[in-house]
């Protein structure tokens, strides 16, 4: 496991994706990681006109380091990795808000596990202004449903992981959307309940990686018709804790010691994440 924080704050994600599409985001968005977007555009043969952003919740970099073989379905369709560092607190609403607004928590206003509708500009708003068609696909009552609500775009809320897969394949086949954001948290749920390295959590990780593989396979039908960018992009990691033992203070009324796995700290396990980028 790494013993230091990664180089790139998560707030650089939005502008990097936008740069791959040939869009320049205004201030206060953090700047793109230009060396990475330059490589990706070279591989694409120009700006991407289709983007699929797959967000598997709570998959920390140390899980990838300890179990690299479980990510084989992701490697098959990606060729560039970026070491991001998540937000403090390392909770889903905070991290995804930074990921899509290009700002630190102090800028977008979500600093802990709360899920208000963001009033500031998001990547979705900038895409819509540029004439693009984004959409969101996620389980019901998840973070994406709440913090990115109210935009002039399509939202799809499903009951479970199977529903996410089926709907994602349907959306890809429709060839209607320029950007599809997909949020899953099967690994996160299992890791909270049984521990980040439990067989249940690692099985969920495998299912999500295989889900990414199926989406990438579906995108193959558009090879040559579109320039396609796809990413496997977690928001934060998760660390193991002693189930049933309160070893830290309460966090927003959530007893963090009541789970076998938890996040929301500055621990390396929670903060370091790896993003995978692929092109077609």
Question: Brief overview, please?
Answer:
The protein is α/β, with parallel strands linked by helices. The protein has a single domain (8-279), classed as Alkaline Phosphatase, subunit A. It contains 12 helices and 10 strands.
Any chance you could write out the topology, listing elements then pairs?
Blueprint: E1 8-9, H1 13-20, H2 34-44, E2 50-56, H3 61-66, H4 72-75, E3 80-85, H5 92-101, H6 105-108, H7 123-129, E4 134-139, H8 143-147, E5 154-158, H9 161-174, E6 179-184, H10 186-194, H11 199-219, E7 228-232, E8 239-240, E9 261-262, H12 268-271, E10 272-279
Quote the beta fraction: 15-25%
Which topology does CATH recognise?
A: Alkaline Phosphatase, subunit A
Strand arrangement across the biggest beta sheet: 1-3-10-7-2-6-4-5
Instruction: Count all strands and give the number.
Output: 10
CATH architecture: 3-Layer(aba) Sandwich
Q: Averaging pLDDT over every residue, what do you get?
A: 93
N-to-C terminal Cα separation, in Å? Answer: 31 Å
> What name goes with the CATH superfamily?
Alkaline Phosphatase, subunit A
Could you list the spans in which at least 5 consecutive residues all have pLDDT below 50? 244-254
Order of helices and strands: EHHEHHEHHHEHEHEHHEEEHE
Specify the overall morphology: globular
* CATH class category label: Alpha Beta
- How many helices? The count is 12
Structural class: alpha/beta
Main sheet specs: 8 strands, mixed
User: Which percent range fits the helix content?
Assistant: 25-40%
Radius of gyration: 17 Å
Number of domains: 1
